[in-house]
């Protein structure tokens, strides 16, 4: 969450080799959804990991 809040996402994407994606990043949109995204992330964090592996976490 901190990368979004500190506006470092565009720089990270640029360093990863995606200058077009970085240039098209809508920082205003990110800032507008940040409160809801942070709230949901905290809810997910509070729940912790499931006691049993879920199918998407199992490796074949």
Q: How helical, in percent, are the residues? A: 55-70%
Number of domains: 1
Instruction: Tell me the number of helical segments per DSSP (H or I, 4 or more residues long).
Output: 4
Mean pLDDT: 86
Q: Name the beta content range.
A: under 5%
User: Uncertain segments of ≥5 residues (pLDDT<50)?
Assistant: none
Q: Specify the overall morphology.
A: flat
Q: What's the total number of strands?
A: 0
Order of helices and strands: HHHH
Radius of gyration: 16 Å
Largest sheet, in brief, is: none
Question: How far apart, in Å, are the first and last alpha carbons?
Answer: 31 Å
Structural class: mainly alpha
Give a structural overview.
By secondary structure, the chain is mainly alpha-helical. It has one domain. Helix content is 63%, strand content 0%. It has helices at residues 2-5, 9-15, 19-24, 27-47. The longest helix has 21 residues, at 27-47. The two termini are 31 Å apart.
List the helices and strands and how they pair.
Elements: H1 2-5, H2 9-15, H3 19-24, H4 27-47
Which terms summarize this structure?
60 residues, mainly alpha, 4 helices, flat
Short description:
The protein is mostly helical and 60 residues long. 63% of the residues lie in helices and 0% in strands. The relative contact order is 0.12.
């Amino acid at each position: 969450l901190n990368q979004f809040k500190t506006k470092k996402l565009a720089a990270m994407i640029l360093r990863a080799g995606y200058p077009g994606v970085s240039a098209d990043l809508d920082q205003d949109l990110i800032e507008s959804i940040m409160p809801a995204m942070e709230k949901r992330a905290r809810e997910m964090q509070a729940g912790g990991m499931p006691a049993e592996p879920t199918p998407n976490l199992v490796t074949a």
